[in-house]
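Inputs:
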Amino acid sequence: MATPDRLLRRRRSHMSTSSTSIPANNNLQKLTEQQREEYTNTLDQLIEATQKRFISTHKSSLQTFTNETISTITARAMEITQDVINLQGYERKKFLEHLRLTQSVDLHTKHLWHQLISQLTHEYGVWFESLSYPKFWELDPTENPQRERRRLQRSYCLMEKRFFQPQVPEEILVNPPLSYLFDTRHYQSVTLQTVLHRNEKIEFQCRCTNVTPNNEVKGELLVGTTRIYFAAEEQVSTSTKTKSVNSAMTSIGYNHRSFNDDSNSFSFAIDEICEMYKRRYLLTDLALELFFINGITLMIAHGSKDDRDHLYRLLAKRNVIHAKPEDKVSEIQTSWKQGHVTNFDYLMQLNKLAGRTFLGKPQNLFLMLNI
Amino acid sequence: MQYPVYPYVISNYDTAVLDLRVASNYRNLAKPIAIQHPDKEEKFIEVYNALEDARALELSRQQECEQQQPLSIFGHQSDPYHFASLYSNSGVVLHYLVRLLPYTRMFLDYQDNNFDCADRTFHDVRTSYWLSSFESTSDFKEIIPEFYYLHEFLLNKQGFNFGKRQNVRENLFYSIINLFLFDFQSEPVSDVVVAPWSKRNARLYVCGLRQALESDYVTAHLHQWIDLIFGYKQTGKSLLCKISKDSIVVC
């Protein structure tokens, strides 16, 4: 800005010296004066225009520069944010992974400990302690290939004294040895932890009820690619009596049966299913009975028929259970006629095909007669 | 609960030796357990006819009154039936399995937290068969598969207190005497009394029944029973039972 001003001044001073040196008449002087004024004016205008142009270009360049800077800064800021988020996410993920791993390792260790302890303190084990061992016998729900349930297992009875003969000693609940190793309250299911750890893809999910003769457990059924998981959420039993027994069982801590608090949750491989039937539950066609190669049977009641049928189709697709009940009837009939099947087995198969099951809870007789 | 159902096979609960070659030792598999004796059959047909007559009468009366009075639910509105009970239900299952945990607990839930009175508790296989096949008019139980493989449910291993039975002979006189003479002649119910041919041994009894189930006689006649329970004769339109002219139908 300073440069054009100085230039102007120099020019003016030059002009004034030239005008004073030449003596001229008034007209000429006037003309010169006029011309000089004109010239000055144009020059001023020119200077102003140049100045304006200069300022505007300068402004615009500044503007673009600012804009550019801003956008760069924003972009960089975003990049940095992204990086920070990524870093944080990575850390978080790592932390969660770590938590999961330690938890599952922890559970696995507990499970191993439990197994070891229960083996060593078993009735025929080295460190058997009769005081803390259950004294009653209960029917084991596992079936043998003939579908007989013959095995008994130790259990707590937890019934009032008045139900027993006087000579039967009262049942005392004593914590088993080394039970302080297990914090029962924060115990979670081993199987579920493994699911979480393996990150298996869950294809179908629905709410359902696992029905056993003396109990019903509500929960979530998760169908993965190779396994099915049942996550129990609460115990719903028909009577307060059974409920209290169950809660008493879990409060004792671990015993031979429930090695963790969440013993109602379980998982099984889809390959292990050997038979599958649609069943009625509480007189509605909502349930599915699954037979496993290891002799376990499961009855799962769904909330709606659609859920049940969907699961049925899904399992039928994965597993080779194609035989229709009608085919099975004629098949078992011919093998019975030929003497390949005993009378007992034949009757058992017929019972099975007729929908009769060891599972399912007792219903009111009145209800049954009034269908 | 639709528990598996198995037939009664042996009808002999009295002799010390059981000959599986003799047909008279078996129950008649072609007929429901309730009508093992011919005179019982007549009785049920009588009841059925009476119900049918009553219904016809009711219908005619109804027509006369031009349906002024609605029929009661428990009146003669239902179709006539032969048996007012079923061959199997959850009460029956729990009745048999009362000595076996966890069924004991379920039995108590079912029975308002009390054992049944001692005389009604499952205590003697002979009595049970007698009740089902002859004596009772409302008890037509078949049996459960456990009779053929699990002897533990016949034994009171856990020492449950099922109370004392009044007497074998159900006689008012004896009952009164019992009250005064401090349980004179009253029997505590513990293990189930099994047939004499098994030497009163539950395990032998179960083995014997299994053998009887697999015997030639049963193999030859089992299809008749299957028809009754699972088969084509199961054609009643409700769970109440029906009879046709020459065959007895249960559903």
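Residues 67-78, 233-251 of chain B have pLDDT under 50 and may be disordered. Flag for discussion at group meeting.
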